[in-house]
Design brief:
Elements: H1 3-17, H2 34-59, H3 69-76, H4 81-92, H5 94-100, H6 104-110, H7 115-124, H8 143-157, H9 167-178, H10 181-195, H11 205-221, H12 223-231, H13 237-245, H14 257-273, H15 276-288, H16 290-294, H17 299-308, H18 313-316, H19 318-325, H20 334-351
Helix pairs in contact: 4-10, 5-10, 6-8, 7-8, 8-9, 8-10, 9-10, 11-12, 11-13, 11-15, 11-20, 14-15, 14-19
């Protein structure tokens, strides 16, 4: 066997060991780097195993997850897959809301429907995770039906929001993790109703406000990038709106398991610590790549660089990346964010 044949045989062996479809149903691309993935996962598996043992002890005989510095530290280091749905449900308040409203979800599905809402949701079904085999019409079971139910139920539960693009990815992601339709509905309610208020209302005032807040935080923490934005007259909404509205799904690439782990780890903290996690992730991406961004000389170049900073080993090495989001931006108090929100919201209202 010559050198080329030997390399091909090794590559084919790796591809047979690491399935072409990841555990969540996402197809790995043709150029998937199996060598890097195996190297990453062999190291990360040691961390996962250690975390799983500690979480098993914490949750033993207890469905509650008390607020504490210990739990906060555990969550920042990652929730094991087998406990993730339970912990998200408990720490977000979704579990208590579901228990306080038995049968409510089913009533929403059985009730009268707003045909305009239903038609809008149906339009987005085939656009949701086209690279995921579980959302294809040929899948058995096909998660499109589950996704449709969750979105229709939520649209009637929260009529001031109804449905807007971006919610399909969030609901779809929740379904993949919980594998439970009703739990996905209540987690969606926790995110949209409490953790991210006004992100998805018709005016999207919360979303617009938080994009402006990020701009103010960049002025404070990465002033050179803020100056570049002002120099070219670029609004933050043109660069980061999808970061916020999709909560980094479909931004940080999810077609490979290690990318998916990064988004999962972000969401672990989001459900426990709230929306300031989004600012931490955004600031870390910008600050870490400051030199790269500052090389841009025009508007299209800046846009391209903001797309590039969400790719590559910095975001795929999820354990290192999550450590960075709590160190690189420095102190980020919720009181500071709330104060900036008041100012930015008032400015936006004054402009309308």
């Amino acid at each position: 066997m010559d050198g080329e044949e030997e390399r091909r045989a090794k590559r084919e062996n790796r591809e047979s060991n690491v399935h072409r479809v990841d555990p969540y149903g996402f197809e790995r691309p043709a150029n998937f780097d199996y060598t890097s993935y195996e190297d990453f996962f062999s190291r990360y598996l040691v961390i996962l195993t250690r975390r799983a043992i500690k979480w098993a002890k914490l949750l033993k005989g207890n469905r509650g997850v008390p607020k504490s510095l210990k739990v906060k530290r555990y969550i920042r280091k990652g929730i094991p897959n087998e406990h993730r749905a339970l912990v998200w449900m408990v720490v977000s308040g979704a579990q208590s809301h579901m228990e306080q409203n038995p049968g409510y979800y089913q009533k929403l599905l059985e009730g009268d429907k707003n045909e305009k809402l239903v038609d809008t949701i149906k339009t987005d079904m085939n656009r949701t995770f086209p690279d995921n085999v579980r959302f294809r019409k040929t899948a058995d079971p096909c998660l499109q039906k589950t996704l449709y139910n969750v979105l229709v139920a939520y649209g009637h539960h929260n009529q001031s929001v109804g449905y807007c693009q971006g919610m399909n990815f969030i609901a779809g992601y929740l379904i993949l993790i919980t594998r439970n339709e009703e739990e996905s509905f209540w987690l969606l309610d926790a995110l949209i109703g409490r953790i991210l208020p006004d992100y998805y209302s018709p005016e999207m005032m919360g979303l617009k406000t938080d994009q402006e807040v990020l701009g103010e935080l960049v002025k404070m923490k990465v002033p050179a990038v803020a100056e570049l934005m002002e120099k070219h007259g670029i609004m933050w909404t043109l660069l980061v709106s999808r970061w916020f509205i999709c909560l980094f799904i479909d931004i940080l690439p999810v077609e490979a398991s290690e990318n998916l782990m990064t988004v999962l780890r972000i969401w672990d903290c989001l459900f426990y610590e709230g929306s300031k996690i989004i600012f931490r992730v955004a600031l870390t991406l910008i600050k870490h790549h400051q030199a790269f961004i500052l090389e841009a000389t025009n508007f299209p170049d800046i846009c391209d660089r903001f797309k590039e900073i969400t790719k590559g080993p910095f975001v795929t090495e999820c354990h290192t990346f999550m450590q960075k989001i709590f160190t690189e931006p420095g102190s980020l108090r919720m009181a500071t964010i709330e104060k900036l929100r008041e100012t930015c919201r008032a400015n936006l209202i004054a402009q309308t």
